[in-house]
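Would you mind writing out the residues of a protein together with its fold in token form for me to study?
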Amino acid sequence: MEASSPLETDLERVRSLWDSEGRISLTECQWSLIKSYSNLLYEASFKLNLVSPADRDLLVSRHIWRALSMGPHIDSIPNKIILDVGSGSGIPAIPLKIYHPMSRFYLVESRRKRANFLKTVIRKLHLKKITVINGRVEDWDDDVVADVVTSRSVANPIALRNWVANHVHKKSMLVCTLNKLGKVGIEGAKDILLESGEEAMRLGIIPL
């Protein structure tokens, strides 16, 4: 029997941990898509510097879990249309699309090579209802209005609110990672600590 690669072992470790904790429920098809995405990200990382070399074999336990952990929190918000800002390597947008297959996703990425990578992932995974915009969200001239805006390590929440002002409604919510230190400073915001194994992150759920 062929031995599992370190990347596959990492994915199975996270899946086993989450199954034992009842963390989230994904189908076999969804886990298969996560595996395919992690492989594509691994291969592309050598050319595009999408993740640090030390993280390549640990993509799921260090990066992808963060995106999947956002899924249950987005469940509690109307999420027909989701706008991801600064999509980069596809985290959190691609795992979230796999988690929320019925939601309509828009991925905004200003760097052409990374936008092209995202398009390749979408094509190879046969994902539907998902569009990549190669540009800056503050320059995006479109009438799309999102229920949820997501982002990871792009800017502080106040800046993000200003950037997406033309693409949200009065009940839209921002779901984003937060810095390790400092308060959100926005009325009605939730600051949630999430953990997986030895990894942890702060998640902000913030009114727009």
Remarks:
- The chain has a mean pLDDT of 92.
